[in-house]
């Protein structure tokens, strides 16, 4: 009885390890290829960064001036149809301003001369045609920094699905071409993995002071297209003729 149990104890691990061993020893000829798929689509959403910078003798004065200007900007954006859920404060800073000794100004140590307050607002504009008007009105009401714009798509799932299909088709075409050149045929898919799927950002304006835009007409904005790219790595069985 004891010998039978010992024999069974050795057999069970061997049976459990059999599938893993068979997988590791799979010596079938294979071919590995990378397929690329790209779909271009017009963006339907713009992410805009707007900042109000105010300077005053005290932090309280600078904050009060900034609050009044930013409140006017937010109210105007809502009048333009921007919903509250698409407005988000993304930064607030209070910085003292100094004058430093330079040997000529009579200062013997750094001295605070005032305060600078910056409030930054991230805005999601879901109507691309409104981006220029939003920028123009915001600048007129006190926005004097920002202007960085990134065009994106609110729901790119269907576009990415199309890009995946193109990537797989590209991988299959490459595999057939390589196999034909080698005098073989492509068999079944053994493994497939995906990478990519994120469009490159498309900033239209870099952060900068925007006073020069105040007197201009609504800002001309071109959204262009977003490119969604997907790569797939596919392993095929290679059948010898």
From TrEMBL:
Signal peptide per UniProt: 1-22
Keyword Signal included in the entry's annotation: yes
InterPro entries: 26kDa_periplasmic_antigen, SIMPL/DUF541
The entry's keywords: Signal
Gene3D superfamilies: Protein of unknown function (DUF541), domain 1, Protein of unknown function (DUF541), domain 2
Name this polypeptide is given: SIMPL domain-containing protein
Originating species: Chelativorans composti
Lineage: Bacteria, Pseudomonadati, Pseudomonadota, Alphaproteobacteria, Hyphomicrobiales
């Amino acid at each position: 009885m004891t010998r039978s149990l010992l024999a069974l104890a050795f057999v069970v691990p061997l049976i459990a390890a059999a599938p893993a061993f068979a997988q590791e020893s799979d010596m079938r000829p294979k071919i590995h290829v990378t397929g690329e798929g790209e779909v271009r689509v017009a963006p339907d959403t713009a992410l805009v960064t707007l900042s109000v910078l105010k300077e005053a003798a005290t932090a309280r004065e600078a904050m009060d001036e900034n609050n009044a200007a930013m409140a006017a900007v937010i109210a105007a954006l809502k009048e333009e149809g921007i919903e509250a859920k698409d407005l988000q404060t993304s930064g607030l800073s209070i910085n003292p301003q100094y004058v430093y000794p330079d040997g000529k100004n009579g200062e013997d140590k750094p001295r605070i001369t005032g305060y600078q307050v910056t409030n930054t607002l991230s805005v999601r504009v879901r109507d691309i045609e409104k981006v220029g008007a939003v920028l123009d009105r915001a600048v007129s009401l006190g926005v004097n920094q920002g202007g960085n714009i990134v065009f994106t798509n609110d729901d790119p799932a269907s576009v990415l699905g199309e890009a995946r299909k193109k990537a797989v088709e590209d991988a299959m075409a490459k595999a057939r071409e390589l196999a034909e050149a080698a005098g073989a045929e492509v068999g079944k898919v053994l493994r497939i993995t995906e990478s990519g799927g994120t469009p490159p950002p498309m900033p239209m304006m870099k952060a900068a002071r925007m006073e020069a835009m105040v007197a201009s007409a609504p800002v001309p904005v071109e959204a262009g297209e977003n490119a969604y790219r997907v790569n797939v790595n596919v392993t095929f069985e290679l059948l010898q003729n």
